[in-house]
Amino acid sequence: MASRALALVLLAVAVGSALLAAAQDAPSPPTPMAPSPSTDETPPVWLKAHATFYGGADASGTMGGACGYVDLYSQGYGTRNAALSTALFNDGASCGQCYKIACDRKRAPQWCKPGVTVTVTATNFCPPNWNLPSDNGGWCNPPRPHFDMAQPAWEKIGIYRAGIIPVMYQRVPCVKKGGVRFTINGHDYFNLVLVTNVATTGSIKSMDIMGSNSTDWMPMVRNWGANWHSLSYLTGQMLSFRVTNMDGQTLVFRNIVPSGWKFGQTFASKLQFNASTAAANTATTTPTNPVAAPTQWQKAHATFYGGADASGTMGGACGYGNLYSQGYGTRNAALSTALFNDGASCGQCYKIACDRKRAPQWCKPGVTVTITATNFCPPNWNLPSDNGGWCNPPRPHFDMAQPAWEKIGVYSAGIIPVIYQRVPCVKKGGLRFTINGHDYFQLVLVTNVAAAGSIKSMEVMGSNTAYWMPMARNWGAQWHSLAYLTGQGLSFRVTNTDDQTLVFTNVVPPGWKFGQTFASKLQFK
């Protein structure tokens, strides 16, 4: 992206690079400006960056992109758009956000058009170019904040032959016509939903889906950019969405997708985020299926694995590692696709009983066992669902640690019918955070989560920043950020799947190292 502007930049270097470089360190006063609806998300000051351009005079080369908006003309984003560097893109969580940008005349007066600003929407990612230095071609290399703007937008504020200009920017509320739109792609058991035309914050923090055959909201996972996915079988059902934006405002789009929908269709709602909906929509965040009061037992089947000591259950698709030392013990299970929800169910707790009405000879009467979801039981498409392919969709199935399974079933059965329901998880102590990864990639494992057991969304803030940065679920119970946070004290804002939020301020001290675990004193109830 930025490389498309590189030829223009090289021309500009011969004319004005010396003057530009000399001016780059000149201070630009932090001009206060009215903040967007959430001051947590948008510091009320102008920040410094640089901007290049790409896409041609008609911006046709900006179509598509890493946010997934495809045709920016028909989606309403037009030619005022930009690709963001790693420092701003936040692994897609910034898709749809709006930025007001001005050329910084104090740093390069000869290349700026005076007295004008332009507002752009984040629609793409500007990748690093490690073959070039950050100040000479590698404009989007971390930790540089950089905008590779659509050419028509860039030319509103800059002189064409400059190629690159210093800018000031700040996040501003997005203004949209009409309601939020949902485009459904994918296939059976994989629903990929593109969310567009989002006003105010422009970007989505979390999203849930519910089919008309269910009464439970199922968390969706950010797949890439503005695309969210669910692994549930929802074909033919009416669909509802519960969407929370970056300001914590929630809207519920009930039956927005009618039964009989087809992949590739787009459905426009009449609801839209705005500053006045924050209070009005607070009630919609109350869980419709709190795990503290399950309404009924549901049917499934259960097998076992891992040996008599459950040592074979260590590790797993949730990333908990050693289940003994993490406190999950031997009462754990791998969930089938229908239950695992692409890792969003990791840490949830289930009370299970053998169903004596369906197989009395294989059940131990009058007992239940409570297990934690710690792994994934993958489909086996080479075997039928009722004869070996126990975890094939759409079957709800528990492949339990052997000691837990033997609490309710007779060993020689091998597989038993069960009834189950979600229950609150009981934990000792507070949440724990284990940090792995490397510079520009913090991979945070969240363990020992009580109540709902599972995490819906998570944000991080370093001690050198003043705003929360959304994290993305990487796999299982692991969440990642692409920001440079090494050496900073870290705070986390965590929302569980019951929509309860806790803030862990400075839970990680400065000087932390990758591989360390930090225990908090806070816990969900």
UniProtKB/TrEMBL annotation:
Membrane topology, from the record: Peripheral membrane protein
Gene3D superfamilies cross-referenced by the UniProt entry: Expansin, cellulose-binding-like domain (2.60.40.760), RlpA-like domain (2.40.40.10)
GO biological processes: plant-type cell wall organization
Residue intervals of the Expansin-like CBD domain: 189-269, 440-520
Extent of the signal sequence: 1-23
A single cellular component GO annotation: membrane
UniProt main location, coarse: membrane
Protein location: Membrane; Secreted, Cell wall
Domain of life: Eukaryota
Pfam annotation, one family: DPBB_1
Domain Expansin-like EG45: 64-179, 315-430
UniProt record similarity statement: Belongs to the expansin family. Expansin A subfamily.
Name of protein: Expansin
Organism of derivation: Oryza nivara
Lineage: Eukaryota, Viridiplantae, Streptophyta, Embryophyta, Tracheophyta
